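Students often ask why inverse folding is considered easier than folding. One informal answer: many sequences map to the same fold, so there is more than one right answer. In these notes we will look at a single instance of the problem. The structure comes first.
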């Protein structure tokens, strides 16, 4: 089951649509997103799309809503980041990553690791092979929340 939710200006969540599916491929997600588009969600007022990191969904967003900012859910980001560091480093890494998130300043994947607070930068670089250069940066990409919802 594929499900899309929206957040209204007053902060309330609303289900936008759902579709039965056998998987989460790009084609599956494009089916749901195209249905939303046909029903009037053309993306003109969309400010940010937050997802769980599904590759098929990310690709479908680029096809249907290419001009809308896309961000990976911070809960999922944090889980993936903590999987890649030593257990004894979890508290420090989590605190440093939350400082980025709560700071509200946009970070790009290109310079993300160099902008990390010292201890997190060291730990990410130490475990960078396990994380991989691409995912180390994209794990911490931050798009500012729209002002009306933040």
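Output (designed amino acids):
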């Amino acid at each position: 089951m594929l499900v899309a939710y929206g957040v209204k200006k007053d902060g309330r969540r609303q289900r936008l649509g759902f579709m039965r599916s056998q998987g989460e491929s790009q084609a599956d997600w494009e089916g749901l997103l195209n249905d939303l588009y046909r029903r009037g969600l053309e993306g003109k007022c969309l400010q940010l799309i937050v997802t769980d990191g599904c590759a098929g969904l990310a690709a479908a967003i680029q096809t249907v809503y290419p001009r809308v900012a896309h961000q990976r859910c911070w809960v999922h980001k944090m889980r993936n980041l903590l999987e890649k560091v030593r257990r004894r480093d979890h508290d420090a890494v989590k605190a440093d990553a939350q400082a980025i998130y709560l700071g509200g300043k946009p970070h790009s994947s290109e310079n993300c690791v160099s902008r990390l607070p010292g201890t997190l930068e060291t730990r990410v670089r130490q475990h960078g092979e396990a994380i991989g250069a691409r995912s180390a940066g994209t794990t911490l990409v931050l798009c500012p929340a729209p002002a009306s919802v933040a």
